[in-house]
Amino acid sequence: MSNNSAALSFDLNVSQAFNTVVELEQTNRLKSLHAKMRDKTATKSQFIFHADQVFRLLIEKSFELLPFDDLSVTTPVGAIYRGKQLANPLCAVSVVRAGESMENELRHIDLKIPIGKILIQRNPLTKQPKLYYSKLPDDIADCHVLVFEPMLATGGSAACAIQVLLDAGVLEERIILVNLLCSPPGIEYLCTRFPRLQIVTSSIEQRLNEHAFMLPGIGDFGDRYFGTTDKGAT
């Protein structure tokens, strides 16, 4: 199926059809955060405040998919606590610019995790994604990688970013796409092309409209998060 078809929708439950897709539990708390984010009257500060809370949930869920080794430590009272530590190095890669919105929540978890950047833009004539820039950690081939990409509509830009990582030597099964909203056709396109890729999302949307916008959607995420809309309200 073409990843740029208009008005795409699917009857299948993609989170069940593709076992590498994890959708956050649709709790009342999560739905409340989504309602406040999606509201077109939300100010920039309100939008950021609620989006960041969802990002934290997404990153924490992504950590659950990573391998851990045993780690024993001695507590201040001389007892042994048997805990865990990451089994492999971890880094993140933001797809500029929307993906950069997730970086602060990652830093709240661990300041030492390196973050790479990938800039991809869609050609206005061909509508195909084009890589303009990438800067990745030197040891990325040894890492598990969290790819920050809040919006997954057709899947073209995300696929381009994933291919950059594969070309850099990252194993496909070590890549987790951390995503806010995704469409069923976008998931199908990515999971068919990269069957070992893992996706963590907070919402699988209903469909794409004829302009490839997700419904019910959230608007232009980057504009709303970074305040580059006409409103510019705080």
Automatic annotation (TrEMBL):
Task: Tell me the InterPro entries matching this sequence.
Answer: PRTase-like (IPR029057), PRTase_dom (IPR000836)
Domain of life the protein comes from = Bacteria
Gene3D superfamilies from the UniProt entry: 3.40.50.2020
Q: Does the keyword Membrane apply?
A: no
> Where's the Phosphoribosyltransferase domain?
26-228
A Pfam family annotated for this UniProt entry: UPRTase
Picking any one GO molecular function of the record gives:
uracil phosphoribosyltransferase activity
* EC numbers, comma separated: 2.4.2.9
Keyword annotations of the record = Glycosyltransferase, Transferase
Instruction: Give the signal sequence positions.
Output: none
Is Glycosyltransferase there in the keyword field?
yes
* Name of this protein: Uracil phosphoribosyltransferase
Gene name per UniProt = upp
